[in-house]
Amino acid sequence: MTPAEGEAWGLQQAMIWMKMLGYHKVIFEMDCKMVVDDVLLLGVKQTKALMLLHAALSHASRYL
């Protein structure tokens, strides 16, 4: 697992955790520019980290 994949996985887990705790409209801060850029450019490039992010965002959108 690359550092970016680890950061994306961490974001996914944090989103799942917030949903389980019943939080809504949570702001996530990250220190991995590559993952932040992937979130902002979702769909422009396909990386393993981006696929993890897409899964996390898809999962979270069902509860927003």
TrEMBL record:
<dbReference type="Pfam" id="PF13456">
    <property type="entry name" value="RVT_3"/>
</dbReference>
<protein>
    <recommendedName>
        <fullName>RNase H type-1 domain-containing protein</fullName>
    </recommendedName>
</protein>
<dbReference type="GO" id="GO:0004523">
    <property type="term" value="F:RNA-DNA hybrid ribonuclease activity"/>
</dbReference>
<feature type="domain" description="RNase H type-1">
    <location>
        <begin position="1"/>
        <end position="58"/>
    </location>
</feature>
<dbReference type="GO" id="GO:0003676">
    <property type="term" value="F:nucleic acid binding"/>
</dbReference>
<dbReference type="InterPro" id="IPR002156">
    <property type="entry name" value="RNaseH_domain"/>
</dbReference>
